[in-house]
Amino acid sequence: MINRVADHFSRSRDAKPTDLVEIKALLGLLYLAGCLKSSRLSVEELWTTDGTGVERFWLTMSKERFLFLLRYLRFDDKETREQRRAIDKLAPIRNLFDIFVENCKKYYTVSEYTTIDEKLEAFRGRCGFKQYIPNKPSKYGVKIFALVDAKTMYTQNLEVYVGKQPDGPYCFPNDAKSIVERIVAPISGTGRNVTCDNWFTSFPLILKLKTDHKLTLVGTVRKNKKELPAEFVNTKARPLQSTMFGFQEETTILSYVPKKGKNVILASSMHHDDKIDMSTGEKFKPEIITFYNCTKGGVDTVDKLCATYNVARNTRRWPMVIFFSLMNLAGINSQIIAKANGSSNVSVRRLYLKNLALALTEDHLRRRAQVTNIPRRVRERRQEVAGISSSTVVAPSPPGTRKRCHFCSKDSKTKYTCKKCNKFLCLSHAEMLCPQCVRIHEEEF
Q1: Using CB atoms within 10 A of its CB, is residue 194 exposed (0-12), middle (13-18) or buried (19+)?
Q2: Pairing label, strands 413-414, 403-404
Q3: Which ranges carry the PiggyBac transposable element-derived protein domain (predicted)?
């Protein structure tokens, strides 16, 4: 993308090509802004040097370069995009999304309890599959279905809802039963349990998961399901905190009345008795409801974690919204993997993200510390943060070399150089110090 727009810039350095080290630094700065809860702050405030900005930003790269990289960040080949869009609405970010999901499946094994739900990534720009969900905080955005570990909050599988796809390899049905079957593919046949809400739960789905995928399901059920007996739906004559159970060979259903006018209906293929959970302090609450309450919030918890240190910046491009969402999930998943591998200092998420940001920007910062044609204050601070001695940055000139004085307006040659920065300077622009005064000056500074 940079090669296509380079001709639009008058100076070649304004659109110079990037590499892996610089892209890692860009991701690191995004993580750092999210860690500081400043991702929505203007770059002018982040890059200011009056003491109110963040030093790591202007040490790592310039504000203009940061905006340039974000502006031209793409995840596919523009030349073939229209051809791929003819069969896939997610074509602009499909490759990156699939690679990320495959790695999530590959590098971690979830526990026995999982959750399926949707998450909404806030976006109000132009998008052919933008959704409106009134009970979500953002209300408008891109809907993503997720499979999350109910214990560790690790996200293992994702699917972006794009509506009806064109005919082709990505044309799949979008009913709840089909979505769940695709989402649970990584854990199919493992005997795990899936917890979901009443949008997903249906009795054909419970039977399908049990017979074809060897998975159990616990979820709330809508009252309009034809399989429910009338006694489970009509609760006018029933006392408060009363429970009615129904048993089949593979499924248990219950109807619980927690308060007047309220009826909670659940179905479970994991539980097969009418056990009451006495540990909750409510002597009439069934164990199925307690289990559902403990495992239903996996995706909601991940949403909360993402919102706490969100890397997303304001954008009008929906692929960037998905990209920022993947970055947030990568921060959570990587911490879970690091903790499972016994790494130290990963228990506090804010500090983990901060260390991750510093590690991603370190290589680029050290490379930038080698640049000499910048203000001395910036150069010396970069060298200090990168742990580089100034003598290793500027190599001394060979003996006998004569060059023009750096400070003279006329072409005056000199053989003398500054011992600090190795710039050539004539005697009229030099200040003499004896060895003793030099030592005192170095000690003071």
Answers
A1: buried
A2: antiparallel
A3: 7-334
**Beta bridge partner(s), residue 217:** 194
* CA distance linking residue 217 with residue 209, whole number of Å: 8
Q: How far is CA 6 from CA 20, 81, 99, 422, in A?
A: 19, 21, 29, 34
Position 338, amino acid: A
| Phi and psi torsions of 243, nearest 5° | -130, 135
Residue 312 near residue 324 (C-beta atoms within 8 A):
yes
Backbone angles phi, psi at 167, to 5 degrees: -60, 130
pTM over 0.70: yes
Checking 97-104 for CB contacts under 8 A at 24+ apart, the result is 97/158, 97/160, 97/322, 97/326, 100/158, 100/326, 100/329, 100/330, 101/157, 101/158, 104/154, 104/155, 104/156, 104/157, 104/158, 104/329, 104/333
Instruction: Give the whole-angstrom CA distance, residue 85 versus residue 94.
Output: 10
- Going by pLDDT thresholds of 50, 70 and 90, the confidence category of residue 438 is low
170: exposed, middle or buried (C-beta count within 10 Å: 0-12, 13-18, 19+)?
Answer: middle
Give residue limits of the domains in the chain: 2-73+343-385, 81-308, 405-444
Report the C-alpha gap between 421 and 14 in whole angstroms: 26
Percent of the chain with pLDDT over 70: 93
Give yes or no for residue 443 having a pLDDT over 70: no
Other residues' Cβ atoms within 10 Å of the Cβ of residue 390: 16
The predicted-structure confidence for 401-411, as pLDDT tens digits, reads as follows 888 887 787 77
Which has the higher per-residue pLDDT, 428 or 60? Answer: 60
CA 178/CA 20 separation, integer angstroms: 39
DSSP for 158-214, written as a single string: EEE--SSPPSSTT----SHHHHHHHHTGGGTTS--EEEE-TTT--HHHHHHHHHHS-
Residues 6 or more apart whose Cβ sits within 8 Å of residue 11? none
